């Protein structure tokens, strides 16, 4: 079947375009792969990919990419060249034994001179993280369907036991209120103006939480620092969501790059110094859903180091203290 004139124009707009008279200028990028201690990584394969053409098919069809690769030398350096129609590249590295997966990003060129993308041969560092000391931890994703975690009631502080992974009695089997959640809400329907506030507090003086930003799906599987901070924990965290007025979008403080460290079960000495405590981290933000939950569903992923005063946050995925969890409850990163 012959392609119509208009379909030919569309094909030339979205497919190889080389056959339609469009050139593909050359790009070069020099990568330097180092570990998180600044040491060069030799023998790492770096790959950069770029759009090649659009291929008609089911639905809207699909984009086909070109991939160019190279291997780092003793200095951890490799220069990779390749042609690109759009001048946009994604880059990543293939993991080596003893390293966590991840480490990559994007490079967008802005113009061409004499058939070469500009700026010519930019230098990009890729930082990859070594596996140093992964340890057993209590690690769990809570609140995902169908294993939802419903806040039992609003207007009342309710404790959650991280080791039992349940609400404290009488709402669950937990014994220690590590995290205390209090939901306050004014809600009638999703179309109407509403507001809801979730406050997170703790049981002990010295307990607390602190923010750490790290974008998801970018960088290492070990996206947060290896050790929780020794200081800087706040005794309270407040999350809000709501619709300020009819026909206005829902507003929320949830961020895709939001994560937290926390400290619980803290015991202070006579000088108010930490004598004993447990440290952990939250992978991603704390989310709560008052639209589908009654009064709300709660969603978060946590890692708790069970050894007192040990701030190591490098989780051994093969040694979860909860055992082999179902996929919906299993954290996806160390």
Distance between the termini: 53 Å
Which outline best applies?
globular
Beta-strand residue fraction:
35-45%
- Number of continuous helical runs: 1
Mean pLDDT: 89
Helix proportion range: under 10%
The residue ranges in which pLDDT falls below 50 over 5 or more consecutive positions are 1-19
Strand segment count: 23
Q: Report Rg.
A: 25 Å
Q: What characterizes the major β-sheet? A: 8 strands, mixed
Please outline the helices and strands.
Layout: H1 5-14, E1 26-35, E2 45-55, E3 62-71, E4 77-83, E5 88-94, E6 104-108, E7 111-113, E8 116-118, E9 123-128, E10 135-142, E11 149-150, E12 158-161, E13 166-167, E14 179-186, E15 194-201, E16 208-213, E17 237-243, E18 251-252, E19 258-268, E20 274-282, E21 287-289, E22 297-304, E23 315-320
Parallel strand pairs: 1-9, 10-23
Antiparallel strand pairs: 1-4, 2-3, 2-5, 5-6, 7-8, 10-22, 11-22, 12-13, 12-14, 14-15, 15-17, 16-19, 17-18, 19-20, 20-22, 21-22
Polypeptide structure, described:
The chain is mainly β. The protein is 3% helix and 44% strand. It is built from one helix and 23 strands. It has one helix at 5-14; strands at residues 26-35, 45-55, 62-71, 77-83, 88-94, 104-108, 111-113, 116-118, 123-128, 135-142, 149-150, 158-161, 166-167, 179-186, 194-201, 208-213, 237-243, 251-252, 258-268, 274-282, 287-289, 297-304, 315-320. Strands 10, 11, 16, 19, 20, 21, 22 and 23 form an eight-stranded mixed sheet that branches. A six-stranded antiparallel sheet has the order 13-12-14-15-17-18, with no helix packed on it. Mean pLDDT is 89; it is low at 1-19.
């Amino acid at each position: 079947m012959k392609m119509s004139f208009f379909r030919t124009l569309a094909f030339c707009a979205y497919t190889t375009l080389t056959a339609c008279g469009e050139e593909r200028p050359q790009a070069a990028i020099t990568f330097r792969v180092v570990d998180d201690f600044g040491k060069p990584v030799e023998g790492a394969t770096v790959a950069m990919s770029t759009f090649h053409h659009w291929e008609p098919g089911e639905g809207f069809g699909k984009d086909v990419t070109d991939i160019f690769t190279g291997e780092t030398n003793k200095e951890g350096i490799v220069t990779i060249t390749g042609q690109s129609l759009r001048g946009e590249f994604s880059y990543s590295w293939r993991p080596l034994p003893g390293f966590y997966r991840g480490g990559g990003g994007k490079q967008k060129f802005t113009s061409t001179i004499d058939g070469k993308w500009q700026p010519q041969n930019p230098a990009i560092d890729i930082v990859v993280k070594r596996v140093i000391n992964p340890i057993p931890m209590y690690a769990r994703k809570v609140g995902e369907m169908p294993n939802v975690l419903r806040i039992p009631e609003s207007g009342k502080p309710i404790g959650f036991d991280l080791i039992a992974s349940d609400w404290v009695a009488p709402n669950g089997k937990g014994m220690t209120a590590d995290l205390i959640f209090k939901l306050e809400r004014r809600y009638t329907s999703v179309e109407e103006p509403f507001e809801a506030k979730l406050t997170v507090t703790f049981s002990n003086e010295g307990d607390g939480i602190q923010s750490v930003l790290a974008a998801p799906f970018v960088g290492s599987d070990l996206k947060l620092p290896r050790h929780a901070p020794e200081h800087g924990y706040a005794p309270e965290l407040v999350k809000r969501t709501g619709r300020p007025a009819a026909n206005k979008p829902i507003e929320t403080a949830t961020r895709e790059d939001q994560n937290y460290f926390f400290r619980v079960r803290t015991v202070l000495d006579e000088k108010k110094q930490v004598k004993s405590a447990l440290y952990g981290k939250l992978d991603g933000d704390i989310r709560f859903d008052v639209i589908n939950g009654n009064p709300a569903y709660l969603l978060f992923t946590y890692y708790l180091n069970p050894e007192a005063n040990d701030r190591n946050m490098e989780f051994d995925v093969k040694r979860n203290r909860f055992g082999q969890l179902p996929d919906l409850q299993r954290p996806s990163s160390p």
